[in-house]
# Entry
Amino acid sequence: MFLNICINSLGSEYTLYKSRIKEKVKSQFGKEDVPGIVFHEYSSVANAISKSQELEDFVSENINVLKSGKEISGSLGFSSNDNLKNAFGKVDVLSARLKNGYVDVTILDTYDFNPNEDNWKVQKGYSVQKAGLLNPYYTVVKCRYKL
# Structure
């Protein structure tokens, strides 16, 4: 399940993240607001991320902080799953916190192509992006990682 929604229309559960999402959109696209897609924890996207080696590693590296009751943030890059690597590459972890035997994770990504990539497909995408021919958007994914 997913929702297509602009930043300013995100629900109250995203209040803590709106400013960070706006900053990311502004830095990546030079715009104040763009449409976004929110994938909830039962979506196939969230399921794939929840089962990824990268999320498992992120949780393992931060398990003591999570068990102490603290919320953490950071980033992770996908490399073990080609679909996640091609769709997301590197993402921002807006929040990860332990709750009832799960780590609830909220991830942010923007649909953009980085200029310094070696991959010719990414370079082509960047050219199209730079020419203003792509519709920018952001993605928020809510995941649940079972401990």
Remarks:
- The CA atoms of residues 61 and 87 lie 24 Å apart.
- The mean pLDDT is 89.
- The radius of gyration is 15 Å.
- The first strand starts at residue 2 and ends at 6.
